[in-house]
Amino acid sequence: MATEVEFRPLSDVELAGSVESVAPAAGSLVLLGVTVRTTPITRFEDQSSADVEQFDLADLRVGDYVEIRG
Questions:
Q1: Residue 1 gets which letter from DSSP?
Q2: Is residue 39 within 8 Å of 56, Cβ to Cβ?
Q3: Is the dihedral of CA 48, 10, 43, 70 positive or negative?
Q4: pLDDT tens by residue, 18-36
Q5: Mind giving me the DSSP string for 4-65?
Q6: Selection from 62, 27, 65, 32 nearest residue 46 by Cα
Q7: Pairwise CA distance, residues 68 & 31, whole Å
Q8: 19 contact partners, CB below 8 Å, separation of at least 6
Q9: Is 69 helix (H, G, I), strand (E, B) or coil?
Q10: What percentage of residues in the chain have a pLDDT greater than 90?
């Protein structure tokens, strides 16, 4: 008998590429010509060798490689 069940929806959208522009005040960035809007619950994870513990949209720069799922 299960003691816990968790449902996790599959991602509907996945994008990967270089950041074309970033607007931290607006909470958005452009990737592959697509404007992506973030919210206060957006999770940022660094999976690079730098292993940055905490960062947010303001830390991204044009040309940075990102992967987005939503």
A1: -
A2: no
A3: positive
A4: 999 999 999 999 999 999 9
A5: -----PPPS-EEEEEEEEEEGGGTEEEETTEEEE--TT------STT--SS--GGG--TT-E
A6: 65
A7: 9
A8: 29, 30, 31, 60, 61, 62, 63, 64, 65, 66
A9: strand
A10: 49
Q: Is the dihedral of CA 46, 50, 53, 55 positive or negative?
A: negative
pTM above 0.85, yes or no: no
Cα distance between residue 60 and residue 47, in whole Å: 14
Q: Are strands 28-31 and 14-23 parallel, antiparallel or unpaired?
A: antiparallel
